[in-house]
Amino acid sequence: MSLLQSTQFRPDPSANATRRAWIRAWPELQNPAAWLVALILVIMPLIANGFFLIEIFATTLILGIIALSLMFLAGYGGMVSLMQLTIAGFAGYMVAVFGISGNANISLGWPWWLATPMALALATLFGTLGGALAVRTEGIYTIMITLAIGAAFYYFTNQNWAIFNGHTGINTVATPQFWGVDWRSDIAFYYVTLGVAAICYFAVQYVSRAPFGLALQGVRDNSRRMAALGFNPNAHRIAAYAFAAFIAALGGVLQVWNYRQISPGSVSVGACIDVLIIAVVGGITRPIGPFIGALIFVLLRTFALDVLIKFGLDGNRFRLLIGLGFLAIVFWSSDGVIGLWERWRRNASPTQRPGGGRHG
Amino acid sequence: MLKGSLGLIALSSLLLSGTAFAQEKIKVGVTATLEGTYTVLGEDGMRGHQTALNVLGKKIGDKELEFVVASTDATPDSAVRAVRKLIEQDKVQILLSPLSGDEGIAVKNFAKTHPELTFVNAASGAQETTYVDPAPNFFRYNMDGAQWQVGLGKYAYETKGYRKIATVGEDYSFIYTQVFGLVLEFCAAGGQVTNRQWVPLGTKDFASVIAALPDDVDAIYLGLGGADAVNFLNQYQQAGGKAHLMGGSIMIDQTILSSKGSAKNALVGTIAASGQADTWEDPNWQKFVKAYQDSFPESKRFPSPSLLATNYYGSTMALILALRQVNGDLSNNQAKLKDALAKIEIDAPNGKIKLDSNRQAIGTNFVTEVVDDGKGALFSKVVKVIPNVNQTLGYDPAVFAKIGLPSRTVPECKKY
Questions:
Q1: CATH dotted code for B24-143+285-362
Q2: Can you list the positions of beta strands (E) in B108-179?
Q3: Does A102 touch chain B (CB under 8 A)?
Q4: Which domains does chain A have, with CATH numbers?
């Protein structure tokens, strides 16, 4: 995705100006496949039972949101940040600390409508500060700095008992209930997750085409030229970190509501890398990529053990199956599942203009 | 292709979960730490579970038990995720879970959100699990970490003559509970605990820990388990450590004593306490050891069952016996089963076990010493058997409550 993107949808001269602008801003609304996916997601509670609804689809959406924040930074900003899960975990911990939980000596007992914005604000601040540190570096050094932040946070939560309750973590975190609805009941929670995921998805789409997003892509492609044009590359990058941190924080809040508990295992270095795997497997060129990657990841994580046992193999080796699955995807397509899809589309209809109708 | 096969898998598991109720089966979900630092412990736990099934059979009247296994990695998150998968996807009616301390606390809290189901603790031993705000549907047939240390402090002080000790332990609830039991008894006898070091679970480099071990102590207590314990012993031996050692219940255990390499030889002569002793003469124990050995080829098991195997055996046994008492009746939110579980007294391999009002085990504890059997294999030899150990360790409940919950610094080293 590059600066050219805004020019690739040639508006039909006969349509009126409003409609033209609308289509330019939201080209995916013209794609029937996108409508189909949206419809399936909306009626999902009719198809899937509690387990598939929450453990597979809601979990996919939550991990997808967190990976989306990485995709935004890596895809549009060229910054691979391994601390997105740490930001999400920080938000989750803050919900537990400011809100209500089983650990009354730690939790402050604020109602959810106070605790959640507080958690989001603090996590965004945390991510922005981390970003401000990381923008001074490039490439592998960005990865190292953000990984260091993630690892430090993990060990800190593991050993700090005053706020984070050490290895035990914080249990029985209260979830919102209002208007007579328990928002953590399966169907309500699924729609909350779906709604947040949709907002994040469209926000990333929108920002990528807004002047800020275009400037960010310019910074990614040639920051010196952008600086010469009068842009401030570092300010753009930090703003991108802040935006991504807010998205990751939303994912983190949903995650702690989902499991009703949080402990250092949720923010371990392994989990940070899982988010990178999700984004890479799905493809970091497109906001839909992280969600596809998350679905594959969740399916493999949940069913690999069962599959091995069903085939009469040693169930203890299920990590191997997960690794082989990811290896296969990355081997055949360096830009993830999205890349496979695009290549298949191109081969199927060679006359189509490359890039047209890409937003599936 | 991958996506297609995934879809097939998802579909087939959907179908499978739908048909499970057609036959008269009782579905039981089991979790064990089959990943991470405690993998070896989880694997042996499952061997204990399998041994119980071989001995007792899977039939409950005209119904049959069906087990679904899920893997965890000793973190509370993984335990909750595994238990949720078992309940929501596999539709299990009874849980045999979990293995490790913090997992136990998380699963107990989770159990409250499913009051209709029954949770039998498999092996976890944090005190908080059943002592603080216990869940009415959570039953624990193994003792907690503090109960497993009863007798060790006194034996170290009186018989071994240790006056000052330091401790090294993994930084989480089960080891806090173990050190809690040790410190209470050792300090009540008159000893001193000068230094308590805590290392994160999964530590690989112990160099700084070993360098910081004090020299002016009579013995060092090790509360480590699994891969951490083996790593510590290797590095301790390379550093030329020669102090007297004392061990926690998963440190002096077949999971460590039959590890490869010579580092474990540092443990010969180490005193420890646990819910079992490898060389106990009791016929019930000997029968269990034999059943365990007969169930698996020699290369795929330990010479003698570990504490985890014994715990999984005991909890599986309690569950099967209670189910048989009620003839597999799970109606009315499993009320009859829960009642039977609360009242049942089992003749476990490691002594009689019954539950208190918090559904926590009262059982037998063993003080042991590590011996070499002459062929290079290490075993824990029983030196003292202490029956009827309860969760308050013989203290008056009011006094016990004042001590506080096990943590890095609780209890203080004094007589309560």
A1: 3.40.50.2300
A2: 118-121, 138-140, 164-170
A3: yes
A4: 29-348 (1.10.3470)
